[in-house]
Amino acid sequence: MSLLNHTHDPAARSWVQSANAAGSDFPIQNLPFCVFRRRGSGAAFRGGVAIGDQVIDLAQLGAAGALQGLAAEAALAGAGASLNPLMALGPAAWQALRHGLFDLLKADAPDVAGTAVEALRGCLVAQAQVEYTVPAQIGDYTDFYTSVHHATNIGKLFRPDNPLMPNYKWVPIGYHGRASSIGISGQAFPRPKGQLKAPDAEAPVLAPSKRMDIELELGIFIGQGNEQGSPIGIEDAENHVFGICLLNDWSARDIQAWEYQPLGPFLSKNFASTVSPWIVTLEALAPYRVPFTRPEGDPQPLPYLDSAANRQGGSFDIQLQVGLLTDQMRAAGQSDAQLCRTSYRHAYWTVAQMVTHHTVNGCNLQPGDLFGSGTLSGPTLDQAGALIELTSGGKHPIALPNGESRTFLEDGDAVVLRGWCEQAGAARIGFGECWGQVLPARA
Ligand code: CA
């Protein structure tokens, strides 16, 4: 488990001034990873690290020789068009790179005018001038279901007599999703068509979904994999996690309601999922660990899903927010309206438990695999991470500040997810933003 060290010192400042601005997502204590290129350059995509409003070009940095040893090796592994080679190197390499960059970026670096710092200065690109791509070659995508509040709310709508299945409090539920349709923030996609069946209709029809929804999730990128047949124990689970991003798992509720039994979600989920450009490492998140607890009366996890470290700090207090920007708001120059606010701390299962459970049968994970946390609804309805919950199945429309209202998404609607961590005694760090937009269905 990644613990606190000098890179978390809330007093640390960088000579990159924008990193020291109050409210910046990317201070020197964060250093999240992305894959980017200079916009319009047609150049090859390459790995990058955020500092303030800049990106450090890892390909250029690796060639400049500003880092030594394992840190230099890690920078070179992160220089390509996907972060998989860096992910495969494991936590010692990720830490060496983080610490190497921290030493070069801090305001009081002993050699602040030295050649290594000068080399790094030449590797900075303004974030305003870059475009991003999905940061890893995602071989497999698994979507979990770790919010008991979401599972209960959805269950009530889909199965009023039997909302929460009896396995929920024992098994970290998940299903295998589709990696090909995962896109980067800014993704726009046509409204999906599918089989829709009204409750009183005799047969379904093929039509564009009328109940397009969002799912506020976190994405968990796997670092080192495991050999098929060799489960990852819970004590070792986090060593296999590279970091966490924002994830919007768009969902067509009307397609879902008709297709999901008996094998689970299929075409209602696989037309698009959007990730944020930035992956925040578990080391950066160390100040925001919180105890994993179970409500009184709930079963404790089976021994293979339990450890002292997981109980002590297996959960993360990550603040999450969803905003909606309609065509009308965009035309009027307004900013997005908040749909919900919650925290990842309410999840019923931890990151470590997801990794361990996924591999307990011998299933092999690979570098770059992505887990979705599942919709992260909090305990109260205003903390729900999906419209189907916020509107009680479309029955209670949400009033927007400009006079519009929504039950589900309309064509042109753009949704933004934001995430950040903030508490006294620690530096505020952020995840940036994850944008996506629903376009009209294709004819
Ligand atoms: Ca989902």
UniProtKB/TrEMBL annotation:
Record keywords, A-Z: Calcium, Hydrolase, Magnesium, Metal-binding, Phenylalanine catabolism, Tyrosine catabolism
Gene name of the encoded protein: fahA
InterPro entries assigned: Fumarylacetoacetase, Fumarylacetoacetase-like_C, Fumarylacetoacetase_C_sf, Fumarylacetoacetase_N, Fumarylacetoacetase_N_sf
All copies of domain Fumarylacetoacetase-like C-terminal, residue ranges: 142-429
Domain of life of the source: Bacteria
Protein name: fumarylacetoacetase
Annotated Mg(2+) binding sites: 249, 269, 273
Fumarylacetoacetase N-terminal domain segment(s): 29-135
Xref: Pfam families: FAA_hydrolase, FAA_hydrolase_N
PANTHER family: FUMARYLACETOACETASE
Known EC number: 3.7.1.2
Pathway involvement of the protein, from the record: Amino-acid degradation; L-phenylalanine degradation; acetoacetate and fumarate from L-phenylalanine: step 6/6
